[in-house]
Structure formats: structure tokens, C-alpha cells
Here is the input.
Amino acid sequence: MIQIRHKATGAVLLEVDAATLVGAKLSGAKLQGASLQGGDLRGAIVNNADLREADLRGANLTNATFNASALDSANAAHATFTGADLTDCTLVGADFTDANMQNVNLRYAKLTGANLSGANLTKSDMSMTDLRANLSSANLEGADLRAADLTGANLMGANLEKANLTSANLNCAVITRARMGGCIDKTGKHGAAKATATAVRAGGPGTGKTTAKPAKPWWQFW
Here is the structure.
């Protein structure tokens, strides 16, 4: 029997009749503020669950499924999400600092204000995702960012090589020192990083540099 407790109060939030959480079926679970630091949840099914403010630091969530779950303000720094499915999740203000998120499905997810600095998002699907977040130094090589909303996102030092940015909204995003070789820009052209950068803020107030007229938000197209 495994007891999942609240990170602050120690109150039991859920009892799982198993010796491990690997492959556990936790769909619909109410786990707000749960302490799962360093936990092994490989292949777990956690759809439509409440994991807001949960402590997932260093947890192994490889190939886990979180469809339509809420992880707002969760701390998943240094966690492993390789191959995980986070389709349509709300991850507002969540911390994914240095997390391993290769091949993750974040399609339609909302990451407003999330911290993904240093995260490995290689070949992840973030199409039509709200990525108005901190992606500084993140590895987005080969990622699918079609129609993603990157308005005002911090992409400083990020690796966007071979990423697909077709129809992505990069208005006011910061791309200083970002690597964009071989990417597909927002107009669908290969290797046209310079064209993509023209829709990005070049400086702040008082710099004398202009900012492109804001494009329609991505959610007005779907």
C-alpha cells in the first residue's frame, strides 16, 4: 500500500493498493499539493487529475499520460517526462527547470508563465500550445511549434535548430543568442530564421526600435 501525502501537511491524499506507482492508474485523482518528489511514475495514467502545486522534483514520469490534467504551479524541476503525454494540460506557472522532456506531447497545453529554462524539449510536439513562458537556454531542436503562441516568450539562448515554427506567434519574443539554423520559420520557409526574427521585439522602451503589430492570437484560428 502506497500513501500519497500532502507536501506541507502530511495529510493522506490517496492510498494506492500497489507496491509501486509504475503504471499506476490515477485518473481523476485529487492530488493538489501532493508530495511525489523523486517518485517513480513511469507509464502511469493520470488523466483528468488535479496535481496543482504538486512536488514532482526529480520524479521519473517517462511515458506517463496526463491528458487534460491540471499541474498549475507544480514543481517539476529536474524531472523526467521523456515520451510523456501532456495533451490539453494546464501548466500555468509550473516549474520545469532543467527537466528532461524529450518527445513529450504538449499539444494544446497551456504553459503561461511556466519556467522551462534549460529544459530538454527535443522533438517534442508543442503545436497549438500556449508557450508564453520562460524558455531560456531550453533545447527545442526539432520541436513541432506549429501555431504555438510564443508571444513575449523568453527564448534567450534557446536551441531552435530544425524546429517547425510555421504559423507560430513570436510577437515580442526575446530570441537573443537563440540558435535557429535549419528551422522552418512562421511563414513555412526552411532556414529563414532572419524572416522569423522580424516579428520579434528588438529592444525595450526608449530604444527607438519598433515592434511589429501584434498578430491574431492563435486561439482565434482554432
Summary: Residues 192-200, 202-214, 217-222 have pLDDT under 50 and may be disordered. Strands lie at 2-5, 12-16.
